[in-house]
Amino acid sequence: MPGHSLFTWTSQREARPVRLAGGKGAWFHDEEGTRYLDFGSVVFNANAGHNHPAILDAMRRQLDELAVAGPWMTTRVREDASRALAASAPAGLTRFLFTLGGADANEHAVKMACQATGRRKVVCRTGSYHGATWGALSFSDDPRTRPFHPALPGVVRVEEPACHRCPWSTSPDRCDRPCAAHVEEAIEREGPGQVAAVLMETLAGINGGYFPPADYYARLRRICDRHGILLILDEVLTGFGRTGAWFALDHYGARPDMVTLGKGITSGHAPLGAVAVGERVARHFEDHELMTGLTATAHPVSLAAALGNLQAMRQDDLVGRSRRLGARLLESLRELALRRPIVADVRGAGLFACLELSRPAAAQVKAAAWQRRLSLPARGRLVFVAPPLVIEDQDLTAGIGLLDAALGSV
After folding, report:
1. Are 265 and 275 in contact (CB under 8 A)?
2. Burial of residue 241 (number of CB atoms within 10 Å: 0-12, 13-18, 19+)
3. What is the rounded CA–CA span in Å between residue 121 and residue 110?
4. Dihedral angle at the C-alpha atoms of 46, 365, 130, 149, nearest 10 degrees?
């Protein structure tokens, strides 16, 4: 690939990036004017679609008013964004540390947990992904972590609560939740006084889109409370309407101490993440130094993008739209699976669905879809459908048809 830019997650000789020129709604186009239907929301982040006017207007106004600020400064947009986010955040999480994105939000959250508890270990799941910085990779369990082993010490790994493929060979309606008991066993083995936090994706993202049993997080809450451990849920991919609720934890009635945010917080229009913090953690830092932060923390233009994004989500009812279209999407994909034997399982919530294939052919499906001007994420045996929440009904139907054809060609 000519030029001076380096591209991630590929060798540079094999890099074939699309020369993106513009986009609107659920579509983007290259410099030659070829349009692609975006079934992956770019990287699961363009929840409000491409170039949403409310977000762009908010960013323009902020650029005219104030474009640079330090993390130790307060600004009008920082205060406005905090209030707006508090109105949408999970109950009890009303204080926010703004970050650069989801990966460093997870690192900041764990650092805050260590400071608040005086402990150093963190419990994380197998099959998890929390970002690509060294610390976030240490919390993750993903093939991309292998070149960086040994990772940070103090990470305790537990099994994923994947009901569709239970590690304990039980079914959700006939089990006593060994997946939750397993977490407590790991904590007790390490010594509860050593564990600062349990960090988990509410729903597994790019490693499978699997769903824990309905009472899993209620049980985790009780386990954490018994041992004085903080519960951190990673909503970087699943937050801001992706699963048909403001946050995936809303499906479970979960009550975490902290939630990490990114991606959909600005719908990808500017880099931003956040740690939403509950009273227990916030109270600690009233009298103790918050020993974390980066130069561009709470950048005013990114915060303006978040404000515009929240406005867009409310005025367009994107959470309700994700819920309604998601029900139709899941039904259509299950019908598709009946016609395509290569599809072994279909899982999803809202406009986040995963097709698990019977063999590792996802790359071929992705390539076949791209030839049909459909862009979608895929890896190994997994193909994802996660279009912008603004997608039109007819475009969703058309995209499912293109996916069907791509599967049929493999």
Report:
1. no
2. buried
3. 9
4. -150
